[in-house]
Amino acid sequence: MPRQLVAVAPRKAALVDYDEPEIGSRQIRVRVEYASPKHGSEIGVFRGEDPFVADLFDEDWRLFVTRKDARIASDGEGPVLGNQWVGIVVERGEEVRRFAVGDRVCGYGGIRETQMLNADTEPFLLPVPDGMPWKSALCLDPAQFALGGIRDGRVRLGDRVAVFGLGAIGAIAAQMARVAGADYVAVIDPIQKRRDAAVAAGADAALDPVSEDVGLELKRATSRAGVDVAIETSGNEQALQQALRGLGYGGTIAFVGWARAFSGTLDLGREAHFNNANLVFSRASSEPSRDHPRWNRQRIAATCWNLLSSNQIDCQRIIDPVVPFPQAPDAYEQYVDRNPQESIKLGIAFE
Q1: 3-138+315-349: CATH number
Q2: Among 130, 196, 314, 347, which has the minimal tally of Cβ within 10 Å of its Cβ?
Q3: In this predicted model, what pLDDT tens digit does every residue of 58-67 receive, in sequence order?
Q4: Which helix (H) or strand (E) holds 279?
Q5: Rounded CA gap, 216 and 304, in Å?
Q6: pLDDT score at 55
Q7: At a CB cut-off of 8 Å and minimum separation 6, what does 259 contact?
Q8: How far, in Å, are 38, 150, 202, 257, 271 from residue 240 at the CA level?
Q9: What is the dihedral of CA 162, 312, 170, 345, to 10 degrees?
Q10: Is CATH 3.40.50.720 correct for 142-281?
Q11: Would the CA dihedral through 47, 347, 80, 168 be positive or negative?
């Protein structure tokens, strides 16, 4: 039987068998070649810390309300882990016209050996063109949130930009800032491996928030003016504090990271108060977007796919490390949960 990566208990992953149903007339079956998890929001579910476990976000009221049956599973089969995959179509229903057997495609879904999808209704099921690296295809999801931050931050030609947090979203955002015409791009992350990868991909400067006064260094690098835009992807309150310190007067912070509750060290009575900072919360999947109706999630995704498939964004150092599928449970626990400093975005190879 085929297997999939499942959170069987908080902070415990395992490969679990699953049944494959008969294919429908409008469906395709895909043999997965490569896959990757979502390191940010998914890790909360894996650890049993997801706010959606205890509370439910009510779309009508636009706020969290208590979920009466709140619980965190402690044993048995839990959610399938994983975010995106690349694979080959091995079977299609008789009414499918969009894809042929042998086509390489990319889509959303868990880390599992096969995927079965409706070829007509899956909005982010995309053909992978020849010459497009599989690592680039697996970066479609973080690229969308990176582009959302770039657009919400209003990065323009000649701007000075600082990107805080160099997971996949931040690493891609730094490259997108350059594509958008930024004159200066600084990246900030405590992990040396991530800083090195961002500099290799074109960042002008890399700062370590543990050993450097990031806000001061950004002011020094810009002749005291500060950066025009800060893209904050880590969700860390001290990163936000340093973004406020390094921001130019009237500049904008696009807060992309999904933050947990702050501990109380954020001080909005300092630079935020004196520098007239604009703080914008950015989430590409929230509809309608600020640029509705001209822009929506589909247009954001299509724009990202064009950037990735044309190799304008380099993802080779972002998907790292890559491990064989049988090692996925241990690798997920090590690289995503316990030692995130050893990876940027974990890759799983099924070959």
Answers
A1: 3.90.180.10
A2: 130
A3: 888 888 888 7
A4: strand 278-281
A5: 33
A6: 77
A7: 235, 236, 237
A8: 22, 16, 23, 10, 11
A9: -150
A10: yes
A11: positive
Q: For 86-96, how does the pLDDT look when each residue is reduced to its tens digit (9 = 90+)?
A: 999 999 999 99
Q: How many residues does the chain have?
A: 351
Residues of the chain with CATH 3.90.180.10: 3-138+315-349
What span, in angstroms and rounded, lies between the C-alpha atoms of 35 and 107?
10
Reading phi first (left if > 0) and then psi (alpha if -120 to 50, else beta), residue 223 is in left
C-alpha dist (Å) from residue 327 to 76, 118, 127, 208, 336? 20, 30, 28, 32, 13
Task: Considering the chain, tell me which residue range(s) the CATH 3.40.50.720 domain(s) occupy.
Answer: 142-281
For 229-259, what is each residue's pLDDT tens digit? Answer: 999 999 999 999 999 999 999 999 999 998 8
Specify which residues 56 forms β-bridges with: 65
- Determine the number of helices (DSSP H) and then strands (DSSP E) in the chain: 11, 17
Under the banding of pLDDT at 50, 70 and 90, the label for residue 200 is very high
DSSP secondary structure, 232-277, as one string:
E-S--HHHHHHHHHHEEEEEEEEE-S------S---TTSHHHHTT-
Checking if the pLDDT of 25 tops 90, the result is yes
Report CA Rg, the chain. Answer: 21
The predicted structure's pLDDT at residue 137:
98
Residue written as tokens 């007239």? 276
Is residue 270 predicted with pLDDT exceeding 50? yes
Confidence check: pLDDT of 70 > 80: no
- Identity of the amino acid at 316: Q
Q: What spatial distance separates the first Cα and last Cα of the chain, rounded to whole Å?
A: 17
Rounded Cα distance between 29 and 151, Å, is: 36
Residues 92 and 108: beta-carbon distance below 8 Å: no
Instruction: Enumerate the β-bridge partners of residue 347.
Output: 322
Take residue 2 and report the two structure tokens written for it: 């085929």
- CA dist., res. 181 & res. 159, Å (int): 7
Within 10 Å of residue 3's Cβ, how many Cβ atoms? 17
For 137-155, write each residue's pLDDT tens digit. Answer: 999 999 999 999 999 999 9
